[in-house]
Specification:
CATH topology of the largest domain: 2-methylcitrate dehydratase PrpD
Strand content: 5-15%
Number of helices: 20
CATH class of the largest domain: Mainly Alpha
Oligomer: single chain
Order of helices and strands: HHHEEHHHHHHHHEHHHHHEHEEHHH
Number of strands: 6
Strand order of the largest sheet: 4-3-5-6
Distance between the termini: 42 Å
Structural class: alpha+beta
Radius of gyration: 22 Å
Helix content: 40-55%
Number of domains: 2
Largest sheet: 4 strands, mixed
């Protein structure tokens, strides 16, 4: 690529990026992201879709390049990354970047599978992961509003582009080939959010993460083999920014400051990230004690626009758990009755008391929170009793955001919850230790092998 284009600038940035360039906070977040998403993969493996994904990769994408996490069987790098990403997304408890979206579900499977195959060390894996976050934040930030209006999904869209650069960096490709990997991946970017309307009746919410991881690796391998992508893949007349966003103008490429990973957040709860500030505001209200549920006259929930639109986010009559996990009225009713927002709690959405309570919920826009969005994602919940008593809970940031981060003990508690009884205590302790010394690992495969129960260890 002879002249400077958006993909060539990104290619040069990625090729020149070194572990020594990363900030201390970026490295800390890398440890947390790896531990967090390994937990969601192991937890997701224990579900119907997780088992189906592992079986498909092992049976239909035969290979011996990389391990299917928690399962132990082998597949190609693309096949294992696809399965790991799909199973890791299923529980909906992966990380959530305010600009980049759900990034880990595409990038972690890429760097883990290639890291295992290539015997990358921890520093090399962390660097590839960080570069992928930088690209996803830049690219998705340029098209997010327009993609949401059109119903496009960021995991299969920007996730494919970020995965391509992370994979190319893991493969240690030069700047020109990284640029071609990114350019080639543009034409593999795909996916819509129709699944939110058909929640519970399809698997595409999670398959899209698998597509992003698989296609990113495929694009990097094509570039390494000598295939070329269009120089204007991002900022050309018919490039990504025009086709999927507001126009061909590039975002300010100096936004590639190398700190995107440091800005990611985490999900302590299940369900959609946009209901989490409502979860936290309701929990804040409950700190002074649970109100008499029979005495509640009305419940008011005010938050930012993206959390209350489209209408599936204010769904008073969900028909399955998938739909319930997006609904603010359901969120409040579940927290008031159960005090938690894990998948098993959301599954109770249709109990009589919860059906009654959610009919009392009125959802509105908080102008102050909206003015700060997406850099803030807060919520206020107000409960008015029949005698006029008002109780209020408010958060400016959902739990797990950089300004309201999980503690080390909360990360470990979540990890142990997700793993459940699948791994023995000694193995869990070893995984926790691997994550704590991630940058010191001589071979990423050490971590991958620890995800598999001892009886089928690879």
């Amino acid at each position: 690529m002879s002249k400077q284009t958006a993909v060539s600038v990104i290619g040069e940035f990625a090729a020149e990026r070194r572990y020594s360039d990363l900030s201390e906070l970026t490295i800390i977040r890398a440890r947390q992201v790896l531990l967090d998403f390994v937990g969601t993969m192991i937890g997701g493996y224990q579900t119907r879709l997780g088992q189906l994904s592992a079986d498909y990769a092992a049976d239909m994408i035969a290979g011996d390049e990389a391990t299917i996490v928690a399962d132990g069987r082998r597949s190609t790098v693309e096949g294992a990354a696809w399965a790991n990403a799909t199973m890791g997304k299923f529980l909906g408890m992966d990380d959530s970047h305010r600009i980049g979206g759900h990034v880990a579900s595409q990038l972690v499977p890429v760097v883990l599978t290639l890291g295992e195959q290539l015997r990358l060390n921890g520093e090399e894996m962390i660097t590839a992961l960080a570069v992928g976050y930088d690209v996803m934040e830049l690219v998705h930030g340029a098209v997010d509003v327009w993609q949401r209006e059109r119903g496009l999904d960021h995991k299969g869209q920007a996730g494919t582009l970020g995965s391509a650069v992370a994979a190319a960096k893991a493969l240690d490709l030069p700047a020109g080939k990284i640029a071609h990997a990114l350019a080639l991946s543009m034409d593999m970017a795909c996916g819509t959010e129709q699944y939110v309307y058909d929640a519970g009746a399809c698997d595409t919410k999670d398959l899209l993460a698998g597509y992003g991881a698989r296609n990113g690796i495929h694009a990097a391998k094509l570039a390494d083999f000598g295939f070329r992508g269009p120089p204007g893949a991002l900022d050309g007349p018919y490039g990504y920014f025009h086709a999927f966003g507001p126009g061909r103008d590039s975002p300010a490429l100096d936004r590639l400051d190398g700190e995107a990973l440091a800005r990611t957040g985490f999900k302590p709860h299940a369900g959609c990230r946009h209901v989490h500030s409502c979860v936290d505001a309701t929990l804040e209200l409950l700190k002074s004690g649970r109100p008499d549920l029979d005495a509640i006259a009305s419940i008011e929930v005010d938050t930012y626009l993206e959390a209350i639109t489209p209408d599936f986010r204010v769904n008073y009559e969900p028909v399955n758990v998938g739909q319930a996990g997006f609904s603010l009225p359901v969120t409040v009713s579940v927290i008031l009755t159960r005090g938690n927002w894990f998948r098993e709690d959301i599954a109770s959405f249709d109990e009589p008391e919860q059906r009654r309570l959610r009919q009392l919920v009125k959802v509105g826009l908080d102008e102050k929170i909206q003015a700060g969005h997406p850099l803030t994602n807060g919520c206020e919940v107000r409960i008015i009793s029949k005698d006029g008593t008002l109780r209020k809970g408010r958060v400016e940031y959902a739990k797990g955001e950089p300004e309201n981060m999980l503690t080390d003990s909360e990360f470990e508690e979540k990890f142990r919850y997700l793993v459940g009884e699948m791994l023995p205590g000694e193995q869990i302790a070893m995984l926790l230790d691997c994550a704590e010394r991630l940058e010191q690992l001589a071979d990423v495969g050490e971590l991958v092998r620890l995800t598999v129960p001892q009886k089928v260890a690879v």
